[in-house]
Amino acid sequence: MRFHTRKWVKPEDLNPNGTLFGGKLLAWIDEEVALYTIIQLENPKIVTKFISEINFMSSAKQGDIVEIGMEAINFGRSSITIKCEVRNKMTHETILTVDNIIMVNLDKNGKPTPHGKTKIEFVKDRLK
Predict the structure, then answer these.
(1) Per-10-residue mean pLDDT for the chain, 128 residues long?
(2) Quick check: 96 and 54 in contact, CB under 8 A?
(3) How many Cα atoms occupy the beta-carbon half-sphere of 69 within 13 Å?
(4) 90: phi then psi, degrees, rounded to nearest 5
(5) Contact 100, 54 (CB under 8 A)
(6) Burial of 18 (0-12, 13-18, 19+ CB in 10 A)
(7) Domain 2-126, CATH homologous superfamily name and number
(8) Can you tell me whether residue 36 is helix, strand or coil?
(9) What are the structural domain ranges in the chain?
(10) Global pTM?
(11) Residues 6+ apart with CB under 8 A from 39
């Protein structure tokens, strides 16, 4: 799994318990998975279709640095399925896991459309 993004837990990210609000973390994940999918499918028109069970395993507190890791685990006709893990950057303790996040590729009319991808591509390899 590649860890693409780091986030610094700030006071505005906390819940009443003084730990990272789960909804904030899920918003960060949804945004990062969307960006990852846009880059992979080379199309800015994508949507989140499904997020499987979310397993909160530990918490983060103010000042922690968390990193979001993603791995493509399946390419469908018009979709891509991503696995996600969030961990504490300094301790590598897992904070959250999501086994399946399904993103769908859309055409200009907002309808699912085939993307033609079968594996992860790196932008550096496209530029050759």
Answers:
(1) 93 97 97 95 96 97 97 96 97 97 97 92 65
(2) yes
(3) 17
(4) -80, -40
(5) no
(6) exposed
(7) Hotdog Thioesterase (3.10.129.10)
(8) helix
(9) 2-126
(10) 0.90
(11) 123
